């Protein structure tokens, strides 16, 4: 039963990633054929679930699955409308998840960086926006890596490329304050692709302590469960 539950959990997670990629392709004006080529490409990390279906049940079954996911994604994108306040913040996070899952993460360090970003995205979903709190211990446990590896990925991949900004260093049991970016080169403010959204959280500023107080979401005291895509 435990093994079956683990397999089901992995399948659910794979499906959520596939659905996020399909939504991204649909928003970009892509086609089901483009989505199929993307998911079945052997070097695309996000297509692992679809390729596993093809390997286990055959190419025809995998293609049927991709068409069903595409139909759902197309309908969801067609129904998208502008939302207000906290709901809008969740739309920002959904867009970030799309971008994270469809970015190529090459090599072992890239795959590790992806796991760390997914952990921070889970924390951000709990907090209700890109601004969130997380300690090294919480993040390392959520990503399933050591704290030493976590620090290396922060300094060599995620912070230099604009995926994460540490706004305030935590002390003791207090987690650091982070802002989840979109990997853009300009990290001085809110990422340009997200600037049209007004969220319930204040955006990061260079003078955080002198600005308005941070509105905090529910702060995880232990490793939070993975959030659904």
Rg of Cα set: 18 Å
In terms of per-residue confidence, which ranges show pLDDT below 50 for 5 or more consecutive residues? 80-84, 185-229
Please state roughly what percent of the residues sit in beta strands, choosing from under 5%, 5-15%, 15-25%, 25-35%, 35-45% or over 45%: 5-15%
Q: Report the sheet with the most strands, covering strand number, pairing sense and barrel closure.
A: 3 strands, antiparallel
Query: Average pLDDT value?
Result: 75
Number of helices: 8
Q: Which overall shape is indicated by the principal axes computed on the Cα atoms?
A: globular
Q: Largest beta sheet: what is the strand line-up?
A: 1-3-2
Span from first to last CA?
25 Å
Give the % helix: 40-55%
Q: What structural category do the secondary elements indicate?
A: mainly alpha
Topology, pairings included?
Blueprint: H1 2-27, H2 32-40, H3 48-57, H4 59-78, H5 85-102, H6 107-127, E1 131-134, H7 136-143, H8 147-158, E2 164-168, E3 176-180
Antiparallel strand pairs: 1-3, 2-3
Model description:
α1 packs across α5 and α3 (48-57) packs antiparallel against α4 (59-78). The longest helix is centred in the first third of the chain and has 26 residues, at 2-27. The chain has helices at 2-27, 32-40, 48-57, 59-78, 85-102, 107-127, 136-143, 147-158, and strands at 131-134, 164-168, 176-180. Strands 1-3-2 form a 3-stranded antiparallel β-sheet. The model is unreliable at 80-84 and 185-229 (pLDDT under 50). The two termini are 25 Å apart. The protein is globular. It has 8 helices and 3 strands; from the N terminus they run ααααααβααββ.
């Amino acid at each position: 039963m435990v093994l079956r539950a683990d397999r089901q959990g992995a399948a659910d997670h794979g499906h959520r990633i596939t659905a996020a990629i399909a939504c991204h392709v649909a928003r970009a004006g892509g086609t089901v054929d483009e989505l199929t080529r993307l998911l079945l490409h052997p070097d695309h990390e996000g297509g692992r679930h679809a390729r596993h279906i093809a390997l286990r049940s055959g190419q025809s079954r995998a293609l049927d699955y991709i068409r069903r996911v595409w139909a759902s994604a197309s309908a969801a994108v067609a129904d998208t409308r502008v939302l207000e306040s906290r709901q809008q913040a969740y739309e920002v996070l959904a867009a970030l998840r799309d971008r994270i899952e469809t970015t190529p993460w090459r090599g072992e360090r890239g795959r590790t960086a992806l796991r760390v970003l997914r952990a921070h995205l889970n924390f951000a979903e709990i907090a209700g926006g890109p601004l969130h709190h997380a300690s090294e211990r919480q993040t390392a446990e959520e990503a399933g890596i050591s704290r030493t590896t976590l620090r290396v990925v922060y300094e060599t991949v995620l912070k230099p490329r604009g995926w994460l900004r540490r706004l305030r260093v935590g002390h003791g049991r207090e987690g650091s304050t982070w802002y989840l970016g979109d990997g853009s080169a300009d990290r001085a403010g809110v990422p340009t692709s997200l600037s049209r959204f007004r969220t319930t959280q204040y955006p990061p500023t260079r003078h955080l302590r002198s600005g308005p107080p941070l509105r905090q979401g529910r702060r995880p005291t232990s490793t939070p469960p993975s959030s659904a895509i």
